[in-house]
Predict the 3D structure of the following.
Amino acid sequence: MKSFSFVSLFVFPLLIQSQMINAQQTATTLDFPKTVIRELTSDEFSGRGYVDDGMGKAADYVATQFKEIGLKKIGDSYFQEFTMPINIIEDAELKINGKELKYGIDFLVRPNSKSQKYFKRDLYLFDPVKFSEALTSNQKLTEFIGEDMKAQHLKHIVFPPYQFEIDSIGSYYKDWPNFYRPDENRDRAIFFFTKDKLTASLSLEQDSISEFIVSDKFYSKDLKIDNYSIQANFVKDFKARNVIGKIEGENPDSLIVITAHYDHLGKVGNTIFRGASDNASGTAFLIELAKYFSNHKPKYSLVFIAFAAEEAGLVGSSWFVEHPMFPLSEIKFLLNFDIMGAGENGIQIVNSSIFTKEFELLNQINSEKKLTPQIKKRGEACNSDHCPFFMVGVPSFFTYTLGGPGYYHDPLDAADTLNLEGFLNLKELFIEFIEQL
C-alpha cells in the first residue's frame, strides 16, 4: 500500500500532465482548420455563392492561404478565371394560412424559377391518386393530360404531399410541373408539398416556371396562399475563379493533384447556406495538407486546386479539364476531398473498386495505424470534382467522411454543428498515402 501511495504521488500527476499536454496539442492542431472553417462559413462570405461576391471573397481567402503557406503560382497568378451562366435566387418569401415560412427550413424555390410576385388566383389541386391510376394505360394517361391541362389553366397549381408505392411514379410526380412550361405562367406559381428533406440546389438556366417546394407540415385541406414572391436574376456571364498552387517535389516529372471545392449555395434573402461540411471542411483539409508538404518536401510535385462552382454542376473542374494549366497526362493520381467533417463511421472512396492497387495501399496503411474505423469501397460516380478528370483518364479517388448529423444543402450545415472527430487521423492517413504512392 505504501508503494502504491508513493507511485500515486509522483506517477499519476505525471500521467495527468501528459494527458493534458496531449489534449492541448490536439486542440492546437485543430485550431487552424477550425479557423478556416469558421472564416469560410461566416456572414462575410454569404455562403460562398453568387450574392454579395461571396464566392469571390472565398477565392481571395484561399489564395491568401496558399501565398502564406508558400505555394508557387502556376503562371503569374493563383487564379484561373472563367465565366458561366447562373440563375441567382436572391430572395423568396412565402406565407401560408397566416404563417410566414422560413427559407431553407420550411420551403425552397426551384433553382431555375423566374421572378414572381403575388397575384391572387384560384388554386388547382392536382390529384395524385388519379395521376397514379392514369399511368396504368396510354389511353388513361392521354385522358388525364387533357383534363389536367384544362383544369390548371390560369390557376395556381398545388401538388399535395403523397407517398407512392412505386418509386418511379413518385419521380414522375415530381417532374410533372414541367408539363406546364408551354402554358402562360405569368402571375402564377406552383406549390409542391413534400415529405422529403428540403435540399437546396442551383441552376445554370432560368425557366418559365416559378415553383415553391414546401414542407408537407404546411399542407391542409383549407390551404390558403396569402403571399409569395421570388426575386431571381439570371446572369449569362458570371465570373468565377479556380484557385491553384504548387509544391515542387523530388520527382518533378509526375504530379499528384489534391482538390476540393470551396464554393457553396450562397444566400437567399437573410438565409445563408454556410456549407461547413460541404465543403469548408474539404477546403480546410486541402489547406492542411498543403501546410504539411510545404515543410516536408514530397516525392512527387503536388498541385492543390480549390474549385469554384462545383455546386452548380462541377463547372470549375470541368473548365480546368477543358483548359488545363499543365498536361493532364502528368497526373500520377488525383485526390478529391468533399465533406471531410465527422468521420466517426469511417470514410467512403469513390473509384476505389476501379483503382484497386491504390485502394489496397490505403487499407494497408490504415490496418497498420488504425486511423479510421473503416474505408468503404465504392464504384465510379460523377458526384464531385474528380469526375471530369476521371472521364478523360486521370486516375482518381473521391473521399468523403461517414457520420455526423447529416446536414446537407440546408442552413443547418454550419461551423457549430460540424464534427471534426476524424480530421487529424485522416490527415495522417492521406499524408502517408501520398508519400507511398
